[in-house]
Amino acid sequence: MAGGKETPRQKMIGMMYLVLTALLALNVSSETLQKFIYLNKSLERQVSENMVKNGNVIDRIKSAVEESGNRETDLAVLSQAEKVRQQTEEIIKYTNDMKEEMIQISGGYDEEGNLVGAQDLDKVANFMINKKKGEELKTRLNEYSTFLTKELDDTFPPLAYDGENHPDYRDDKEQKRKDFATLTFESTPTAAGLASVSQIQTEIMAYEAKALEDLARKVGAGDVKFDVITPMVKPVSNIVAAGTKYEADLFIAASSSGITPTMAVNGNQINVVGGKGKVEFTASAGNYDNDGIAKKSYEAAITITMPGGRDTTFTDVIEYFVAKPVIQVQSAAMQQLYLNCGNELNIQVPQLGAAYNPSFSAKGAQVINGAKKGFITVIPNAASVDVNVSSSGNYIGKEVFKVKRIPQPSLVPKARGRELDMKTGEKAPGPRSLTIDVVPDENFAAFLPKDARYRAVEWTAYLARGNRPVDQITATGQTANLTKFASQARAGDRIVVEVKRVQRMNFKDKLEDVKLPTSASVFNIPLQ
């Protein structure tokens, strides 16, 4: 598609349409379809408003022709303007009829006024692709742009392209093979199909506006009268992700080649090229609404020298909207971290693309940057952690994590390579050696294997008979030799193990002591 001159609001709606179309390709929930319904209504209001605005231009042309004495050349311009309006009304009616047919074939509206087939993926595609309505639409659209090109002796690019000729898709191996109807309506729900046609209508109205403005200038109707002057802004997009650049052209409606204005944004002077001020700044995060949109504004000021040499400054407050970027976090433990452990996170903001240049800070934790962009290690020291995400120094948002304490490991006595049964015990005189394995919690070990390395470093084994110890052996490692118990042990005795010290090796390969309750660090092995 190609469009003519657009207002900031039209630009914003157009960007919303592109964003929603991209979301639809990702098979998102029905909430996106509801946004398409809302967007379609906004587009339809825009078309209706532009019909009135463009009609006012024709009225101005009529007035200018009359004021100029109904000169033949001016009457010819008026005739051209009326032809343009007639052709525009015809194609708008044609596209409105097409939308009405889409609504009917998808089930119309229910008693509450809701679009019955809003989510239907087949009927619009079948109607536009298989029944060739899309090809018919393409023909009508391009006939309109061809008419304007010939009538005004100007260039109005086609309104509908096949993939191989589309400015955005001709180099795409998959999309370039598709025709206009398939590109626009393949696998498209009814709600999105209606919005697509409404979007086309806004481009038709933009073409008509450009044509009428060109005609108006020929009879003076487009001349700027220095009675009402306001700054005008033409943004690249009114919706930008936090962390990306907001770009726009700032200019005055009454600009001319003989005027060199001075322009400023929020009091800071900007460069003026060809009568247009170049507005560029990085959009910052804000108070987002439920749809993830933050309303922002800046003050634009234009100073020009009026007749008589007096400088006059015109100001306006320009609104724009910042879309909340989606922060994606990937980690083994997801939204839950472990205290004093190296929790590895991968934090990305897909909307920023190559512009993503992250930096991180945290409340309740230490952050260590990883080798790759967006990879960090978070070591919590509080019950919850806030990880703040910025890109190129611009704050994006934060992610909040709950923090769990490290679960206690289990002590497992082994002899002859197998775990001992504490209930049945061992036959007297008992094992010749004993190993104490320290086994981490299963989930903890799965999430953070580098932090789940334990060992017993000090424990004592007692040969006990009744209420008194017969002998004891102190171990300073996982395994102890119990051979000296063999000559003394008999059935009915027991081996009592008291683990006095356990250590954990963390992700930095540093050792720290682990406190275990008495109930978990002392156990009895009966001898039969």
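[next item in queue]
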Amino acid sequence: MVKMRIKNNTVVKSAIKVKTSFKDMLEAVDAVNESLKTAKSMREFTESSVAALRYLSTRLALTKRQCILLSVFLDNCFDRDISLGRVADLMHVSVTGMLRLWPDLDKLEERGYIVCSRGGYNGTSYRMPMDILGAFKYDRVYVEPGMGNEKLSLDQLFEQIATLFGRRSDDDLPYAMFLTKIETLLKNNSHLDFVSRLFALHLERESRILLLYFCHLLVTENEVEVGNYDIGKIFEVGKLANIKRQLSLGQHELQREGLIDFSCDYGAVDRTLHCLTDKATKGLLSDVELPSNEYKAGLTSHSEIAAKELFYNEEDERQISDLAGLLSEENYQSIRQRLQEKGMRQGFACLFYGGPGTGKTETVLQLAKQTGRDIMQVDISQVRSKWVGDSEKNVKGVFDQYRKAVGKNKKAPILFFNEADAILNMRQEGAQRAVEKMENSIQNIILEELEKLDGIFIATTNLANNLDPAFERRFLYKVNFHKPTTEARTKIWKSMLPDVAEDRLSALAAEFDFSGGQIENIARHYAIDNILYGANSLDRLRQFCLNERISNYGTRRIGFVV
């Protein structure tokens, strides 16, 4: 339309075309931006955009100035670093004039229309989340998830919590605004049991925020430890020093309530790291599926074990053959029944001890294969946890899992603790250090479990001389794996290198006092060398033996080692 203006008692026609109706918010935003670009003065801009601003203000519940700012940001939404200077230029105001608009910028940030990056390379700048474009595309008023009437699921709640903590950590959200958003998010979703339990603790606001941060890291990041550095990214400087001091002294409200505790490195307390307690996780996160720190021992089917011929000294072979006969299902059940009738323990605990490479581990696997028993192999390094009490829980849990496996399988599986030196050694008398107490506690649990074992337990160790006497009594069968004799070594060489002349292999067996594991290592080296460089000479084979022998005396070899 053409608007009439009066100037010096003269009627003047203005060429400004003012649109008075809009089909959606995008059309109104476009009208505002077009007026900003073409108007020669602020009065002309106001006259040409008054209807569009009135429409946007009514739809969005924002002031007209806030609608102008929002229109400018929408027109530059693909710029991820919009400076205040650029906004000032687009609005035809000075940078100092932008200071008057600061409360309006805060309002847009509070509503989630813009995100402010503070203290970056270019100073304070803004960007618009892509979700805003989607809302305007479908002519919807944007509301941040959890900030309106929409009820979130527990997963959606933690997604939004993660977003807010992430923005706060990146310094994209002022502390006061962050607190407001968190509190609004929680209150708007009080229908969730997690939120109800959190408020039922009646914690101070900062304590509630800190506890929520711990829960967020555990649920969404699988982080069980929270350090002072992480906490420093959330709280403002004025409150941070006091929070850190209270935490280091163990006097924080969350510590007094038994909700968080110091983390430990194999029993040694670290006052800079903290974690949720069982009370907190069970009380707050009982309906959340959490990643478990509990060690899970897998059950390997006997059918998956590759058959392998093993060679022993005469006495070792006799003992292993006797044990294999005992573990055959017919003999095993018969002996269990007779022991039960006599009121004796029915479990079979066996210890295989001897030097490295003498075949202890492979023998366990072949016994499982031969007797048709599945095997539950336990990785001792994973059972031992850095968390106070978790190592003990893990060991207890392994035996609980084994009992369930015995009940579900037709044949009792073999519970196998490989390289168990660390947990079968001498207990510490008068243990004072936390790690020593933990080790003793683990050993006591194993001793107790072996006492009531109803199944088959086999442990291997290289250090039998350091075996605790209490363990020695618990093992019904103890098999000493010796280094193979010359005759046994010859058989091992033949099985590994069938294409090499027997007299040559016999000479190697006589010259080098290797274990079966060392012979296998040399044979693999010889085979790989043959694949890479063609047919090997016997001199090369002997050189590999010399290299292996050198390694026995601690000389470090240089080159290709398998």
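[queue empty]
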